[in-house]
Design a protein that fits this description.
By secondary structure, the protein is α+β, with helices and mostly antiparallel strands. It has one domain (19-323): Beta-lactamase (3-Layer(aba) Sandwich). It is 30% helix and 18% strand. It contains ten helices and ten strands. Strands 3-2-10-9-8 form a five-stranded mixed beta sheet, sandwiched between helices. The chain has a three-stranded antiparallel beta sheet with strand order 1-6-7, covered by helices on one side. It starts with 30 loop residues before the first helix and ends with a helix.
């Protein structure tokens, strides 16, 4: 049985996702999403999605800036579309509740507070990046070395730079790397996360554990997680890591190297996919925040408790682009 933790690695055989440029097969959407499709709710939702705030004329989106494209590992296999983003489609789908909501003020908020699993790490990464302490050296704590779930195998006493642990946290969703950063920053780390929650206006979110383990008092909503992803992706370093498929890091003494791949199975397989984060625990189920861009249209998708996360994601993204022709 796969281990339960703040994230499971996306060990998916190739047939589970369409090849690049290939639409999801008919009938690929399962469970609650299939129910929605039969009722015609997804189609009506996508037809009514509002246009989100557009970038100023001549100003590229964060992901189009040159610094966002530099890679420390092998980035997604396809070449990114360089034209400015002219339309943003935001979708939040809570599959467990058989409901889909657009994430804009003109649409209802997703009222159901839900366990965010490792989607929590988007905020952990944002707080880390905004600290400006990426070059500090972290000594791995005993607690970090004992973390469960998705991990890269850190040992107590090993020393790595914050930026390398950040890469492991975002790309591999490594709980040991996340815990090492949180312990290094001290007991106020989670408080900083919640202060950032308030600053971003995330009205239905609270964090207790920086890695995303199921804890009392830890909750968020699909709407809030979509907004958090948009904010995180405005940071060039986060955007770069979110689209990176492979990374190698090492301890500061060079004695131990770590090689790992992304948990996001959409990267390099779904046309236009540029991130963002996966999550999975026993109680939260399989979760995903995904962003895809095609010819001036960006789709932000949140799936919570998705039984068939990757087919649901590919199917809903396809329909979003289908109902909003590329500009």
């Amino acid at each position: 049985m796969p281990a339960r933790g703040a994230d499971r690695a996306a060990r998916l055989p190739r047939p589970l996702l369409p090849r690049r440029g290939e639409a999801a097969r008919p009938g690929a959407l399962r469970g609650a999403q299939l129910h929605l499709e039969k009722q015609g709710q997804v189609q009506r939702l996508l037809q009514q999605l509002p246009r989100a705030q557009q970038p100023r004329r001549g100003q590229p989106a964060a992901e189009d800036r040159p610094e966002a494209g530099r890679a420390a590992g092998r980035d997604a296999g396809h070449q990114q579309d360089q034209r400015p983003i002219r339309q943003v489609i935001l979708i939040a789908v809570l599959l467990a509740a058989c409901s889909a909501h657009a994430v804009e003020d003109r649409f209802p908020r997703v009222a159901d507070a839900y366990l965010p699993a490792s989607l929590t790490k988007m905020m952990s990464a944002l707080v880390t990046l905004e600290s400006g302490r990426l070059d500090e050296v972290v000594t791995v704590s005993r607690a970090a070395s004992r973390e469960t779930g998705s991990r890269i195998g850190l040992k107590a006493g090993q020393q790595l730079r914050v930026r390398d642990l950040l890469a492991a946290m975002v790309v591999r969703s490594a709980n040991d790397a996340c815990r090492a950063i949180a312990d290094h920053f001290g007991v106020t780390f989670v408080s900083r996360m919640n202060q950032r929650v308030l600053a971003l206006g995330l009205r239905d979110t609270q964090f207790v554990d920086p890695c995303g383990h199921d804890r009392p008092g830890q909750y968020s909503t699909a709407a809030d997680l979509a907004r958090l992803a948009e904010q995180a992706m405005q940071h060039p370093e986060f955007a770069r890591l979110a689209r990176t498929e492979r990374v190698s890091i090492a301890t500061t003494d060079g004695r131990r190297r770590f090689h790992f791949t992304t948990t996001n199975a959409l990267l390099g397989r779904y046309e236009g996919a540029i991130g963002v984060k996966t999550g999975s625990t026993g109680r939260a189920g399989n979760c995903l925040v995904a962003i895809a861009e095609r010819k001036g249209v960006r789709v932000v998708l949140v799936l919570l408790n998705a039984r068939n996360r990757w087919w649901n994601a590919a199917g809903v993204l396809d329909r979003a682009f289908e109902f909003h022709p590329q500009m």
